[in-house]
């Protein structure tokens, strides 16, 4: 592919009108689990390495090019893993099932994960890793975790702030660059572009810059068309963007991302429902819905090889032992 086929000034109205009938292949990321909710919220949410790898395979077969992974603490499955070894095991099992899928690990991790653990988990050497561009606050309640599940509890009240500072963001970016890991720039609101500008100016990230817009999470931008377009307007040059809609906003934001020429992320981390009142059977069903929507707008689904080219990753998938 030529660069101009999949990357342009996305806020340019004339370019969009020129591209609307020949939009680039759609890169679909599947966020298979997340670091907060688990089987107490939906019995198909994967928690163990084998379950996560199986869900990655399901998403891969349905059309996802990238799997975004939160390892779980084997001693307390409703918490995020803090050891690189957990991620190595998951990455290895996912690679065995999905030979060319892009492996993306979290550094957002869980709400209470220590910063040193977020950095240490990069030793698992994912091909991509999420990089939050600023702090975010969360306040919600978790339903009880029944006795038939490991690590049961009677429900949790959460009121936390993940303390990403300029220095911590830059430290994570530096480690990613040293280890050959592509940062996925988690952008919750327009103020986070200050952080990305610092990373670019200091040479800590390299083009193409991959921005992921999180729409509808607490302290993120409201999930509206106006706000998504406003975020796109602020993209620096040599950038691609992906869109995530949280909960009930997922399918509207996904569709907007597809129409506007961006990429998308869906999966059980972000939303449990196929449609109102009907929970997803698994991550594969979420990917299948994205594929149907994309094809209605004449967008092909990117293969892992195309996604690697567009995101500037090695054509040779990273192997794990």
Average residue-wise pLDDT = 95
Count the domains: 1
Low-confidence stretches: none
Supply the CATH class: Alpha Beta
Estimate the helix proportion, in percent.
25-40%
Topology-level CATH name: TIM Barrel
CA-atom Rg in angstroms: 18 Å
How many separate helices?
A: 11
> DSSP strand (E) fraction?
15-25%
**N-to-C SSE series?**
HHEHEEEHEHEEEHEHEHEHEEEHH
In whole angstroms, the N-to-C terminal distance is: 32 Å
What is the CATH H-level superfamily? Aldolase class I
- Biggest β-sheet: strands ordered side by side in the sheet: 1-2-5-6-9-10-11-12
Count all strands and give the number.
14
Describe the model:
It is a single chain. The chain has helices at residues 3-6, 13-19, 49-62, 84-97, 115-120, 166-179, 193-201, 225-233, 250-259, 283-296, 304-311; strands at residues 28-31, 66-69, 72-73, 76-80, 102-105, 128-132, 136-142, 156-162, 182-187, 209-215, 239-245, 263-266, 273-275, 278-279. It has one domain (3-311): TIM Barrel (Alpha-Beta Barrel). The mean pLDDT is 95. It starts with a helix and ends in a 10-residue tail after the last helix. By secondary structure, it is α/β, with parallel strands linked by helices. The radius of gyration is 18 Å and the shape is globular. The strands form four sheets. It has an eight-stranded parallel β-barrel with strand order 1-2-5-6-9-10-11-12, surrounded by seven helices. It has a two-stranded antiparallel ribbon with strand order 3-4. The protein has a two-stranded antiparallel ribbon with strand order 7-8.
